[in-house]
Design goal:
With 334 residues, this protein is mainly alpha-helical. The protein has helices at 3-10, 14-23, 41-55, 60-68, 74-104, 110-123, 128-140, 146-155, 159-171, 177-184, 189-200, 205-214, 220-232, 239-247, 252-262, 266-281, 287-296, 303-312, 318-333; strands at 30-31, 37-38. The chain has a two-stranded antiparallel ribbon with strand order 1-2. It holds the Pfam family HEAT_2. This is MerR family transcriptional regulator.
Length: 334
Protein backbone atom coordinates (compact mmCIF):
# COMPACT_ATOMS: atom_id res chain seq x y z
CA UNK A 1 0.00 0.00 0.00
CA UNK A 2 1.38 3.40 -0.98
CA UNK A 3 1.77 6.28 1.43
CA UNK A 4 -1.27 8.17 0.11
CA UNK A 5 -3.52 5.14 0.60
CA UNK A 6 -2.14 4.62 4.12
CA UNK A 7 -2.80 8.27 4.96
CA UNK A 8 -6.41 8.02 3.81
CA UNK A 9 -7.11 4.78 5.70
CA UNK A 10 -5.26 5.63 8.91
CA UNK A 11 -6.13 9.31 9.16
CA UNK A 12 -2.43 10.12 9.62
CA UNK A 13 -1.14 12.75 7.19
CA UNK A 14 1.57 11.88 4.69
CA UNK A 15 3.73 14.51 6.31
CA UNK A 16 3.40 12.82 9.70
CA UNK A 17 4.06 9.39 8.16
CA UNK A 18 7.31 10.72 6.70
CA UNK A 19 8.14 12.17 10.12
CA UNK A 20 7.57 8.76 11.72
CA UNK A 21 9.91 7.26 9.18
CA UNK A 22 12.58 9.89 9.81
CA UNK A 23 12.45 9.02 13.53
CA UNK A 24 12.64 5.30 12.77
CA UNK A 25 9.19 4.59 14.21
CA UNK A 26 7.94 3.08 10.94
CA UNK A 27 10.31 1.56 8.40
CA UNK A 28 8.53 0.47 5.22
CA UNK A 29 11.04 -2.00 3.83
CA UNK A 30 9.56 -2.39 0.38
CA UNK A 31 9.63 -0.03 -2.57
CA UNK A 32 7.73 -0.17 -5.80
CA UNK A 33 9.57 -0.38 -9.13
CA UNK A 34 9.08 3.37 -9.35
CA UNK A 35 10.82 3.79 -5.97
CA UNK A 36 7.73 4.70 -3.89
CA UNK A 37 7.37 3.48 -0.33
CA UNK A 38 5.13 0.46 0.03
CA UNK A 39 3.64 -0.23 3.46
CA UNK A 40 2.96 -3.79 4.58
CA UNK A 41 0.03 -4.82 6.79
CA UNK A 42 2.54 -5.03 9.68
CA UNK A 43 3.63 -1.41 9.01
CA UNK A 44 0.00 -0.26 9.07
CA UNK A 45 -0.61 -2.12 12.34
CA UNK A 46 2.41 -0.36 13.84
CA UNK A 47 1.05 3.03 12.72
CA UNK A 48 -2.20 2.32 14.58
CA UNK A 49 -0.19 1.27 17.63
CA UNK A 50 1.75 4.54 17.48
CA UNK A 51 -1.46 6.58 17.30
CA UNK A 52 -2.98 4.65 20.19
CA UNK A 53 0.02 5.28 22.43
CA UNK A 54 0.15 8.94 21.42
CA UNK A 55 -3.50 9.29 22.48
CA UNK A 56 -2.39 8.37 26.02
CA UNK A 57 -0.03 11.32 26.09
CA UNK A 58 3.26 9.53 25.28
CA UNK A 59 5.88 11.44 23.41
CA UNK A 60 7.13 9.94 20.12
CA UNK A 61 10.36 8.99 21.86
CA UNK A 62 8.41 7.12 24.56
CA UNK A 63 6.31 5.47 21.87
CA UNK A 64 9.49 4.19 20.23
CA UNK A 65 10.76 2.73 23.52
CA UNK A 66 7.40 1.10 24.19
CA UNK A 67 7.22 -0.58 20.78
CA UNK A 68 10.85 -1.62 20.34
CA UNK A 69 12.03 -2.60 23.83
CA UNK A 70 11.10 -6.27 24.41
CA UNK A 71 11.61 -5.84 28.14
CA UNK A 72 9.46 -2.72 28.37
CA UNK A 73 7.18 -2.67 31.44
CA UNK A 74 4.21 -0.36 30.89
CA UNK A 75 3.19 0.04 34.55
CA UNK A 76 5.91 2.56 35.44
CA UNK A 77 5.22 4.63 32.34
CA UNK A 78 1.47 4.57 32.94
CA UNK A 79 2.01 5.70 36.55
CA UNK A 80 4.19 8.53 35.27
CA UNK A 81 1.53 9.49 32.72
CA UNK A 82 -1.08 9.60 35.48
CA UNK A 83 1.15 11.89 37.56
CA UNK A 84 1.85 14.19 34.62
CA UNK A 85 -1.81 14.32 33.66
CA UNK A 86 -2.82 15.26 37.20
CA UNK A 87 -0.21 18.02 37.23
CA UNK A 88 -1.44 19.29 33.88
CA UNK A 89 -5.06 19.26 35.08
CA UNK A 90 -4.05 21.13 38.23
CA UNK A 91 -2.20 23.73 36.17
CA UNK A 92 -5.12 24.10 33.75
CA UNK A 93 -7.60 24.35 36.63
CA UNK A 94 -5.49 27.05 38.26
CA UNK A 95 -5.38 28.95 34.98
CA UNK A 96 -9.14 28.58 34.52
CA UNK A 97 -9.74 29.88 38.06
CA UNK A 98 -7.49 32.86 37.43
CA UNK A 99 -9.25 33.67 34.16
CA UNK A 100 -12.69 33.37 35.78
CA UNK A 101 -11.64 35.71 38.56
CA UNK A 102 -10.32 38.27 36.10
CA UNK A 103 -13.55 38.02 34.13
CA UNK A 104 -15.64 38.43 37.29
CA UNK A 105 -13.89 41.72 38.01
CA UNK A 106 -15.17 43.05 34.66
CA UNK A 107 -11.97 44.88 33.69
CA UNK A 108 -12.50 47.91 31.46
CA UNK A 109 -9.17 47.51 29.66
CA UNK A 110 -5.83 45.76 29.64
CA UNK A 111 -4.50 48.04 32.36
CA UNK A 112 -7.22 46.76 34.69
CA UNK A 113 -6.41 43.18 33.69
CA UNK A 114 -2.74 43.69 34.51
CA UNK A 115 -3.59 45.25 37.88
CA UNK A 116 -5.90 42.38 38.78
CA UNK A 117 -3.26 39.83 37.78
CA UNK A 118 -0.69 41.68 39.88
CA UNK A 119 -3.02 41.69 42.91
CA UNK A 120 -3.84 38.00 42.52
CA UNK A 121 -0.14 37.19 42.35
CA UNK A 122 0.51 39.35 45.41
CA UNK A 123 -2.19 37.52 47.36
CA UNK A 124 -0.23 34.32 46.74
CA UNK A 125 3.15 35.85 47.56
CA UNK A 126 5.44 34.35 50.19
CA UNK A 127 5.81 37.86 51.67
CA UNK A 128 3.23 38.63 54.35
CA UNK A 129 3.69 42.34 53.66
CA UNK A 130 2.83 41.90 49.99
CA UNK A 131 -0.23 39.82 50.84
CA UNK A 132 -1.43 42.44 53.30
CA UNK A 133 -0.96 45.31 50.82
CA UNK A 134 -2.80 43.30 48.17
CA UNK A 135 -5.73 42.77 50.53
CA UNK A 136 -5.97 46.47 51.27
CA UNK A 137 -5.48 47.43 47.62
CA UNK A 138 -8.28 45.08 46.58
CA UNK A 139 -10.73 47.59 48.04
CA UNK A 140 -8.96 50.86 47.42
CA UNK A 141 -7.87 50.21 43.83
CA UNK A 142 -9.03 47.55 41.35
CA UNK A 143 -11.46 45.16 43.11
CA UNK A 144 -10.19 41.59 43.42
CA UNK A 145 -12.92 38.96 42.85
CA UNK A 146 -14.44 37.98 46.18
CA UNK A 147 -13.73 34.29 45.47
CA UNK A 148 -10.00 35.05 45.56
CA UNK A 149 -10.36 37.02 48.80
CA UNK A 150 -12.29 34.19 50.46
CA UNK A 151 -9.73 31.60 49.36
CA UNK A 152 -6.92 33.78 50.70
CA UNK A 153 -8.73 34.47 53.98
CA UNK A 154 -9.41 30.80 54.62
CA UNK A 155 -5.78 29.84 54.06
CA UNK A 156 -4.01 32.82 55.69
CA UNK A 157 -2.05 32.04 58.87
CA UNK A 158 -0.49 35.47 59.48
CA UNK A 159 -2.84 37.39 61.86
CA UNK A 160 -2.14 40.81 60.34
CA UNK A 161 -2.76 39.63 56.78
CA UNK A 162 -5.83 37.68 57.91
CA UNK A 163 -7.24 40.84 59.50
CA UNK A 164 -6.74 42.81 56.30
CA UNK A 165 -8.43 40.07 54.27
CA UNK A 166 -11.42 39.95 56.63
CA UNK A 167 -11.72 43.73 56.39
CA UNK A 168 -11.66 43.54 52.59
CA UNK A 169 -14.36 40.87 52.66
CA UNK A 170 -16.49 42.98 54.99
CA UNK A 171 -16.31 45.85 52.49
CA UNK A 172 -17.71 43.58 49.80
CA UNK A 173 -20.96 43.10 51.72
CA UNK A 174 -22.65 39.72 51.62
CA UNK A 175 -21.15 38.59 48.28
CA UNK A 176 -18.64 36.26 49.93
CA UNK A 177 -21.00 34.77 52.52
CA UNK A 178 -21.98 31.65 50.54
CA UNK A 179 -18.30 30.73 50.11
CA UNK A 180 -17.55 31.47 53.77
CA UNK A 181 -20.53 29.31 54.75
CA UNK A 182 -18.92 26.47 52.79
CA UNK A 183 -15.76 27.11 54.79
CA UNK A 184 -17.68 26.37 58.00
CA UNK A 185 -18.14 22.84 56.68
CA UNK A 186 -14.46 22.29 55.89
CA UNK A 187 -12.81 19.16 57.33
CA UNK A 188 -9.91 21.38 58.44
CA UNK A 189 -10.40 23.01 61.86
CA UNK A 190 -8.32 26.10 61.04
CA UNK A 191 -10.37 26.76 57.91
CA UNK A 192 -13.62 26.52 59.91
CA UNK A 193 -12.25 28.95 62.47
CA UNK A 194 -11.16 31.46 59.81
CA UNK A 195 -14.52 31.21 58.08
CA UNK A 196 -16.34 31.97 61.34
CA UNK A 197 -14.04 34.91 62.07
CA UNK A 198 -14.61 36.35 58.61
CA UNK A 199 -18.40 36.00 58.85
CA UNK A 200 -18.28 37.68 62.27
CA UNK A 201 -16.87 40.84 60.70
CA UNK A 202 -19.58 41.19 58.04
CA UNK A 203 -22.25 43.46 59.57
CA UNK A 204 -25.49 42.41 57.91
CA UNK A 205 -28.52 40.27 58.55
CA UNK A 206 -27.44 37.35 56.40
CA UNK A 207 -24.15 37.10 58.31
CA UNK A 208 -26.07 37.25 61.60
CA UNK A 209 -28.29 34.39 60.44
CA UNK A 210 -25.22 32.30 59.58
CA UNK A 211 -23.74 33.02 63.01
CA UNK A 212 -26.98 31.98 64.71
CA UNK A 213 -26.85 28.67 62.84
CA UNK A 214 -23.21 28.34 63.89
CA UNK A 215 -24.23 28.34 67.58
CA UNK A 216 -25.13 24.68 67.11
CA UNK A 217 -22.05 23.82 65.02
CA UNK A 218 -20.15 20.67 65.93
CA UNK A 219 -16.92 22.68 66.24
CA UNK A 220 -16.64 24.29 69.67
CA UNK A 221 -14.34 27.04 68.36
CA UNK A 222 -16.90 28.01 65.73
CA UNK A 223 -19.67 28.11 68.35
CA UNK A 224 -17.62 30.37 70.59
CA UNK A 225 -16.70 32.71 67.75
CA UNK A 226 -20.36 32.94 66.78
CA UNK A 227 -21.37 33.59 70.38
CA UNK A 228 -18.97 36.51 70.79
CA UNK A 229 -20.04 38.07 67.49
CA UNK A 230 -23.74 37.67 68.21
CA UNK A 231 -23.34 39.04 71.71
CA UNK A 232 -21.79 42.20 70.27
CA UNK A 233 -24.78 42.43 67.90
CA UNK A 234 -27.29 42.16 70.73
CA UNK A 235 -28.61 38.71 69.78
CA UNK A 236 -30.00 36.95 72.86
CA UNK A 237 -29.41 33.48 71.41
CA UNK A 238 -25.73 33.92 72.25
CA UNK A 239 -26.26 34.00 76.04
CA UNK A 240 -25.90 30.23 76.77
CA UNK A 241 -22.70 30.01 74.74
CA UNK A 242 -21.23 33.10 76.39
CA UNK A 243 -22.00 31.82 79.90
CA UNK A 244 -20.41 28.46 79.04
CA UNK A 245 -17.30 30.31 77.85
CA UNK A 246 -17.02 32.01 81.24
CA UNK A 247 -17.35 28.68 83.02
CA UNK A 248 -14.76 27.05 80.75
CA UNK A 249 -12.38 30.06 80.93
CA UNK A 250 -12.38 30.38 77.12
CA UNK A 251 -12.07 34.06 76.20
CA UNK A 252 -14.04 34.60 79.38
CA UNK A 253 -13.28 38.33 79.59
CA UNK A 254 -14.60 38.86 76.05
CA UNK A 255 -17.62 36.72 76.84
CA UNK A 256 -18.36 38.78 79.95
CA UNK A 257 -18.09 41.98 77.89
CA UNK A 258 -20.53 40.55 75.35
CA UNK A 259 -22.98 39.69 78.14
CA UNK A 260 -22.64 43.23 79.45
CA UNK A 261 -23.55 44.56 76.00
CA UNK A 262 -26.60 42.31 75.85
CA UNK A 263 -27.61 43.38 79.36
CA UNK A 264 -28.28 46.93 78.16
CA UNK A 265 -31.74 45.50 77.47
CA UNK A 266 -33.45 45.30 80.92
CA UNK A 267 -35.37 42.13 80.01
CA UNK A 268 -32.19 40.43 78.84
CA UNK A 269 -30.32 41.68 81.90
CA UNK A 270 -32.61 39.67 84.19
CA UNK A 271 -32.37 36.60 81.94
CA UNK A 272 -28.57 36.79 81.92
CA UNK A 273 -28.38 37.28 85.68
CA UNK A 274 -30.73 34.31 86.20
CA UNK A 275 -28.60 32.08 84.00
CA UNK A 276 -25.40 33.11 85.78
CA UNK A 277 -27.02 32.41 89.15
CA UNK A 278 -28.24 29.02 87.95
CA UNK A 279 -24.68 28.15 86.92
CA UNK A 280 -23.36 29.29 90.28
CA UNK A 281 -25.86 27.03 92.01
CA UNK A 282 -24.55 24.07 90.01
CA UNK A 283 -22.42 22.21 92.50
CA UNK A 284 -19.99 20.69 90.02
CA UNK A 285 -18.23 23.92 89.07
CA UNK A 286 -14.78 24.60 90.51
CA UNK A 287 -14.10 27.59 92.72
CA UNK A 288 -12.32 29.47 89.94
CA UNK A 289 -15.32 29.03 87.61
CA UNK A 290 -17.74 30.25 90.30
CA UNK A 291 -15.53 33.29 90.89
CA UNK A 292 -15.57 34.13 87.14
CA UNK A 293 -19.36 33.80 87.08
CA UNK A 294 -19.57 36.12 90.07
CA UNK A 295 -17.31 38.66 88.34
CA UNK A 296 -19.55 38.48 85.25
CA UNK A 297 -22.47 39.71 87.39
CA UNK A 298 -20.59 42.95 88.00
CA UNK A 299 -21.69 44.54 84.73
CA UNK A 300 -25.21 43.11 84.67
CA UNK A 301 -27.65 45.81 85.86
CA UNK A 302 -30.92 45.16 87.64
CA UNK A 303 -32.34 43.82 90.85
CA UNK A 304 -31.82 40.16 89.95
CA UNK A 305 -28.03 40.61 89.68
CA UNK A 306 -27.91 42.74 92.83
CA UNK A 307 -29.80 40.16 94.87
CA UNK A 308 -27.59 37.40 93.55
CA UNK A 309 -24.49 39.33 94.57
CA UNK A 310 -25.95 39.95 98.04
CA UNK A 311 -26.48 36.21 98.48
CA UNK A 312 -23.01 35.43 97.10
CA UNK A 313 -21.38 37.83 99.58
CA UNK A 314 -22.22 35.16 102.19
CA UNK A 315 -21.10 32.23 100.06
CA UNK A 316 -19.19 29.38 101.68
CA UNK A 317 -16.44 29.87 99.13
CA UNK A 318 -14.42 32.74 100.60
CA UNK A 319 -13.05 33.85 97.21
CA UNK A 320 -16.57 34.05 95.78
CA UNK A 321 -17.86 35.89 98.87
CA UNK A 322 -15.06 38.46 98.77
CA UNK A 323 -15.55 39.01 95.03
CA UNK A 324 -19.30 39.54 95.48
CA UNK A 325 -18.74 41.91 98.41
CA UNK A 326 -16.28 44.00 96.41
CA UNK A 327 -18.63 44.20 93.43
CA UNK A 328 -21.53 45.28 95.67
CA UNK A 329 -19.42 48.10 97.09
CA UNK A 330 -18.67 49.32 93.58
CA UNK A 331 -22.34 49.11 92.58
CA UNK A 332 -23.47 50.98 95.68
CA UNK A 333 -20.86 53.68 95.08
CA UNK A 334 -22.25 54.49 91.63
Amino acid sequence: MLIGDVARRSGVSTRMLRHYESLGLVRPARRTEAGYREYSSEDIRRIFHIESLRSLGLSLREVGFALDDPGFAPSALVDDLIRRTRERIADETELLTRLRRIGAAEPAGWEDVLQIVALLQALGSESAGKRQRAALSSVEEVPVPVEALVEAALSEADPNVAGALRWALAQSGDVGLPLLAEGLGSPVAEVRKRAAQAIAEIPNGEATALLQDALTHSDLVVRRCAGLALGARGVADAVPTLVDMIVEEANDADAADALSTLASDPVLADQIATRLVDCLAHGTHESSARRRLTQALADIPGITASRALEDLSHDEDRAVALTATYILKLRNAR
